Amino acid sequence: MFYRQQFDTVLGFVTRRTDSVHLAADLTADIFLTALEQADSYDARRGAPVAWLYGISRNVLASHFRGSVRELHAVARIAGRRMLDDQDVSAIEARIDAAREARGLAARHAALSEPLRAVLDLVAVDGLTVPEAAHALGISAATARVRLHRARKVLRTAAPQISAATTGSVATTASVNALLEVAP
């Protein structure tokens, strides 16, 4: 009965404040639901039921428009920014994995003894041949080959355990092995 008596009043109140038919219908329904939920808080000494209903209507509309403003601000903050798609996420994950593996390889490299690291750096990083690296270090070519072999062996044996534990990726282990095979 109350709903039927006040429906046009509430709908008129709402339609004067919004330009969407669907929004007006939704807000009117929300107002009556709120009134139903708060029926026990109605105090006849404070005024007519329609005044109480107008108070609820103002609060429901204010709440809706505050939410709309927050939504508009959120949309404005992300406007012009592209959201990440699956390819972007995959690319970022690959970069994170590569950086993790690079840190692991750097740690394993730092753990090598200085003679092994020196030969490895000259051959793998600086691009010298084994005889050129041997000459730069003042050692024989055979000694340089042995040190290079030992350095690669140490890095290879550590690589699968670290890669599997940190990235779970066989591809990462393959990339470390490829790096170790840079020079003969």
From TrEMBL:
Q: Please state which protein family the record places this protein in.
A: Belongs to the sigma-70 factor family. ECF subfamily.
Would I find Cytoplasm among this entry's keywords? no
CDD domains the UniProt entry points to: Sigma70_r4 (cd06171)
In this chain the RNA polymerase sigma-70 region domain maps to 3-68
- Keyword Transcription regulation annotated: yes
Question: From the record, what ranges are coiled-coil?
Answer: none
- Where does the source fall among the domains of life? Bacteria
Q: Which UniProt keywords apply?
A: Sigma factor, Transcription, Transcription regulation
Q: Which residues form the signal peptide?
A: none
Provide the protein name.
Answer: RNA polymerase sigma factor
Which InterPro entries would you find in this protein's record?
RNA_pol_sigma-70-like (IPR039425), RNA_pol_sigma-70_dom (IPR014284), RNA_pol_sigma70_r2 (IPR007627), RNA_pol_sigma70_r4_t2 (IPR013249), RNA_pol_sigma_r2 (IPR013325), RNA_pol_sigma_r3/r4-like (IPR013324), WH-like_DNA-bd_sf (IPR036388)
All copies of the RNA polymerase sigma factor 70 region 4 type domain together span 106-153
